[in-house]
Amino acid sequence: MPPRLAIVLKGYPRLSETFVAQEIRALELRGFELIIISLRHPYDPGIHPIHDEIKAPVHYLPEYVHDDIPRVLRACLSVCWKAGFWCALVTLLRDFIRDPTRNRLRRFSQALVMANEMPDSVRHYYTHFMHTPASVSYYASKISRRSWSVSAHAKDIWTISGWELSEKLASTDWVVTCTAANKEYLSKLAVAEGQVTLLYHGLDFDRFDQNPEAASMQDGSDPANEVCLISVGRAVDKKGYDFLLAALAMLPATLHWRFIHIGGGELLEQLQRQAQE
Length: 277
Description:
Blueprint (H helix, E strand, L loop, with lengths): L3 E6 L8 H12 L4 E5 L10 H5 L4 E3 L8 H11 L3 H16 L3 H16 L4 E7 L3 H13 L2 E6 L2 H4 L3 H10 L3 E3 L2 H10 L6 E3 L28 E6 L8 H9 L7 E6 L5 H9 L1
Parallel strand pairs: 1-2, 1-4, 2-3, 4-5, 5-6, 6-7, 8-9
């Protein structure tokens, strides 16, 4: 039987991370025994059907130290006798000097709890996102002497410092990322050649309804049969909906179309105003 894996996530389940859920379910179907470690409880009011298919138990860490001080203290007392704890503590102090933030202390506290409460059957941490979830796995791996790996995606790569990326990369068994630009950047920071692998997100087309009718021949020339463009995503800056709207506005008036966006976010009202202009 394949070894039991801990999947470390910032939050679970999350509506915006279907790619994570699909991967977890695919690993289960391949025979892996998993446990999901979430840094916080879900904020989304709903879930996707695929979340109901996932069998792995979910273990929530205290999001803040004050959420469960006794739990954090128990973890600290339990692991402080281990050599790995002192190695992790030295690493934390070195990191804190360069990045003196409360967030770093929070992640170390979560790492204490994770290392203490992890079943002995788990031998590896597989982490999604290079920023806060990777910090927890990074420290926990040192405390518990377990190996770890990471799947790096977007702002989690580009919004943290080079020294932090380099040191995290050096401690991983392997790294996957979803764009060629990410791979090129991370490979320059990695110690070992070939450590970073490009792995695009995939879609399981069996999950989509198959339209038995022939493909539409709409080209936007008929005002009575306009082309409908649909997008599903969060209305946040990194998604680039402002650029999409600007590009759509440049289409010639002879084309007839409408655009439907599904999803909320902090920029929704701003984008609605832009669409009306």
